[in-house]
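Practice problem: predict the structure.
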Amino acid sequence: MVSDATDDADSRPDAATDSPLAARWLALDRGWQALALGITVVGAHLAGQAAGLF
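Answer:
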């Protein structure tokens, strides 16, 4: 079976972990990343609606 290169921790560039925020983001499982991104998008949409932008 061939492994997926995107799942290897070594395939990530080291420059992306210079920031503590980036390091924490990359340490998260992809499911948690998707959930956090979805909540952020919904929150931004709701804030835009409250401000009358959308």
